[in-house]
Description:
This protein has 294 residues and is α/β, with parallel strands linked by helices. It contains nine helices and nine strands.
Amino acid sequence: MSNRLNLIANHLAAPASATHPKGVLAGQVAIITGSGQGIGAEAAKLFAAEGAKVVITDIDASKSEAVTKEIVAAGGIAHSIPGDVMDPSFPERLVEETVRKFGGLNILVNNAGFTYDGTIHKMTDKQWETMLTVHNTAPFRLVRAAAKYFRTKNKDANKCIINISSTSGLHGNFGQVNYACAKAGVVGLTKTICKEWGAFGVRANTVAFGYIETRLTAAKEEGAFVEVEGKKVALGIPGGRKKGSDDAVKALSDIPLGRPGSAKEAAGSILLLCSPWASYISGHTLEVTGGRGI
C-alpha cells in the first residue's frame, strides 16, 4: 500500500512534461477559495507547479500567507488575499484584487466550506442557513463577480469554473441535511453556468468528493473547529477513526480501493478538469470516491 501511495505522490509532484514544459496551466490565473489548508492548499500548490499564478484565499490570514510563502519559496507564483467568503462584500473584492495583481482570471475553484452537523429534528435555522451561505451563496457571488472576465469573446482562452461538492450532496448523509442540501445545490449551480456561459467558451464542472483525509473526516476529538459568529463549531466524525481500529476498517469496507483518498489526490482531480485534456468536458459531476457508491 505504501509503495503505491509513494508512486502516486511522485506522479503528482512530477515536473512539467515535454509537451507542456512550463506546465499545463502556464500563465493562467486561478483563484482557489479555502486554500489555506487541506484540499485547497494542495490544489494551490499543484496549480502553481503547473505554471499557474494562484491566488490563495482563506478566512485564516496566517494560513493563507503560509501557503503563499511555500509556493513562492518553491519557485511558483502566488498571492494571498485572505477573507471570509460569507462576507457579501468579499467576493467582488477578491476578484478585482486578483485581476489588478495578475491582469486577468482564467480559473475559479469554489472550494471553501465546512460542516455544521445535526439531525433534522434538532437542526437550527443558523446551522441550515450557514451551510447554504458558505456552499451556495458564496460561490454564486464569486461567479457573479467574475462574470465580466469569463463572459468575453475570447473562446480560445481557458475559462474554467470548478465547484466542489460531496457525495453527501449526491446521496444524502445521516446528520448532514443542511450540508447535503447545500452540496446538492452546487450541482445545479454548475449545470446552469455550463448552459448560460458555454457560448463564451466557459467550462463549469463539479467535483464530488467521497472519503478524503481532511479535517472534515478526522476524529472530532482531535479538536478541529471553525468559528461562526464567535461560536466554535466542531469538525470531524464523532468517536474517532484511528488507523487499524474497527471503526476505521468499517469506514473503508465499501471503498473498492480499500483506503481513503489523500488531499493531494483530491487536488489532482481538480487539476484534471482544468487541464487541456478536459477541454470538451462541461456540466459534469466527477465523483472522486475510490469506487465507493458505484
